Amino acid sequence: MLLAGIPPLSGFIVKFALLTAMIGPAGEGAPVSVATWIFFALLILSGLSAMLAMMRAGIRTFWAPVEGVVPRVLVMEIAPVAFLLLLCLALTVEGGPAMRYMNATAQSLHQPSAYIGDVLSATPVPNPEPGTHK
User: Fold this and answer.
1) How many CB atoms lie within 10 A of CB 14?
2) What percent of the chain has pLDDT over 90?
3) Residue predicted with more confidence, 61 or 83
4) What gap in Å lies between CA 113 and CA 6, rounded to an integer?
5) What is the mean pLDDT of the chain?
6) Count of beta carbons in the 10 Å neighbourhood of residue 9
7) 109 vs 99, 102, 103, 116, CA distance in Å?
8) Which one, 32, 105, 118, 134, has the greatest CB density within 10 A?
9) At how many degrees (to 10) do helices 10-23 and 75-93 cross?
10) DSSP 8-class letter at 111
11) Measured on CA atoms in the order 5, 9, 11, 16, is the torsion positive or negative?
12) What pLDDT was estimated at residue 38?
């Protein structure tokens, strides 16, 4: 459901931010390009496709007759999934700081002069002599 962008999960927040950023730069009354509308439609259709795929998988999983022995799931297998779900929940509840970080990252990518200055002003580190590294 995260990939499909179902509200109120973090996938919806990300999808909403993408859609807002695509429409927002045009300004009020300015026309939106055809490519933007195509991407807009593809983004919405991708969520619909994900929902349809999940419905089909759910129908096969829960409505199919049980065959054989159901394998046991170990805590070691469940723990990473539970951790990732908790991270997604945290991104849903506290999405503001993550969005501010992503916005700052995008701004620095659009204005790379500070990064270029830092790289060019860094002190060069000499290469190690052959045979001295372990």
Assistant:
1) 17
2) 13
3) 83
4) 38
5) 83
6) 18
7) 15, 10, 10, 11
8) 32
9) 40
10) -
11) positive
12) 92
Q: What is the average pLDDT across 24-29?
A: 64
Which residue in the block uniquely carries the two structure tokens 């022995």? Answer: 69
Q: In the numeric block, which tokens belong to residue 93?
A: 């509840």
Query: Which three-class secondary structure state does DSSP give residue 72?
Result: coil
Find out whether 39 and 49 touch, Cβ atoms under 8 Å. Answer: no
Q: What's the pLDDT at 133?
A: 62
Q: Pick the closest to residue 22 from 94, 14, 55, 123 (CA basis).
A: 14
Helices (H), the chain: 10-23, 34-62, 75-93, 95-110, 113-121
* Cα-trace Rg, the chain: 23
pLDDT at 71 over 70: yes
